[in-house]
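User: I'm putting together a teaching handout on how sequence relates to shape, and I'd like one worked example. Could you take Four-helix bundle copper-binding protein from Sphingomonas alba, show the sequence you're using, and then write out its predicted structure as tokens right after it?

Assistant: Happy to. First the sequence, then the structure tokens directly below it.
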Amino acid sequence: MSIRKMIGLHPNGREHVNQALGDAVHHLMYCAKMCASCADACLAEQMDMTQCIRVCLDCSDICDTTARVALRQTGQNEAVVRELLELCARTCDACAAECEKHDHEHCRLCAQICPECAADCRNAEASVLEPA
């Protein structure tokens, strides 16, 4: 089962499924967990990883919140969805930049997923239209 399919099953989304938004929600859910896992691994490192932990946890929370808001098909709140997608893309960029500073495999993986998620957020932001 995929979140894209679930979104498509919503009665309000059957006529038009926003594929870009579905892709972003899928990536957001995955990125949130990857960032949380990276933060946890950073806690176990012997060096001071305070900033990386903070940025990863912030990114995880923002990705999770953005996914929850973006998947809602009932009612309209396009301006908030677009703002969250923009914020999430910037946060993912910052997380990737921080993780790239560290020579740990968990940071490397986090630095890889974050730009992918940011790109999906930007694509989805462009696809969310103003209400008619």
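A couple of points you could highlight for students: The two ends are 32 Å apart (CA to CA). Residues 24 and 120 are 5 Å apart (CA to CA).
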